[in-house]
Amino acid sequence: MNEMKSAVIVGTAYPYRGGLAGINQTLARTFIRCGIRCRIFTFTVQYPSFLFPGKSQYADGPAPEGLDITRMLNSVNPLSWIRTGLKVRRERPDAVIVRYWIPQMAPALGTVCRIARRKGIKTIALLDNVVPHEKRPMDTLLTRYFLGSIDGFVYMSEQVHSDLQSFRPDKPAVFSPHPMYTNYGEKIEREEACRLLRLDPGLRYTMFFGFIRDYKGLDLLLDAWALLSEQGKTAGHRLIIAGEYYSGKETYMNQIERLGIGDEMILFDYFVADEEVARFFSVSDLVVQPYRSATQSGVTQVAYFFDVPMVVTGVGGLREIVPDGEVGFVVAPKPQAIARAIDRYYSENLSEKFRENIRNYKVRFTWERMAENFQKLYRTICENAKKTEKAG
User: How many CA atoms lie within 13 A of 161 on its CB side?
Assistant: First the structure.
């Protein structure tokens, strides 16, 4: 039986920050624990500075221990794509695993994979998206180029699978739900987390967490909060907004002022470093993801890890991994629906019930299960290749 014994991951990793880097590094550690040799090739230039919407692309802390990370790939320099592809090919891993999230990366990642395949190395894509949230010219052409370089796919939501089928229904694909983030440390006592964040432990906190982009619907949550405030249901409550603005900061600030809810907002306007994440989820009673569109979300998996109930909108893959009425609520992406769900959660005192359900439900989101799914897909790719050889 064909088993993947070595792999190279090509994608975001230290010194870059954020969820993409965290997942690639945790996946590499999981492979190593499972007996699969693994190293990572990451970028020298991921986004040119003028194209990056945030304040910094880079992590502040030290490099992760125990991982072999090589900076080699420049997303806008074709010569580096060729050099990286040749370097990966000389490594002769059983598989190259590429994390794919936006079409702008298709030329670089697709070229690396095409070069590697010439020596029989299998190529696997872990798909965040096939169709991007924020569409641009050339997206379809770039996506086709990348998908054409891949032997098989791991997808994390049925929305992504449906999009994939419109491009490559001929390639094997395996579902593997987004694993929990395990790189943010353990939950801490609520009082201590409040002290670290300088919050009043006597209040209850609802939180919006993560990069702030228009499709994530923060404006819907602000409108919902205003409805609750008008009804007198936010006494003793605060809404935490924690994350770096990638778009629309002034628009949101104007909305908060117009709605008259500034006194009930607590704003942490910066990228939340890994070592701080546990503080925010340890103080939060409820996490709200009011997205207008989604495939899957890392924020959901952080909430699962810290046993925090959720209100999510029923878009994309969110409704697939948040059982409605068990670990949270799934609602329409409308302020009224979001407000009703928040009110119900607090008025019916559902915290303990939902947290217990989360502890039972989240066992399916392990990294070991994702590693098994990669092995399953690798075997399928190898079997298909043998059948093609025999047929030829």
Answer: 13
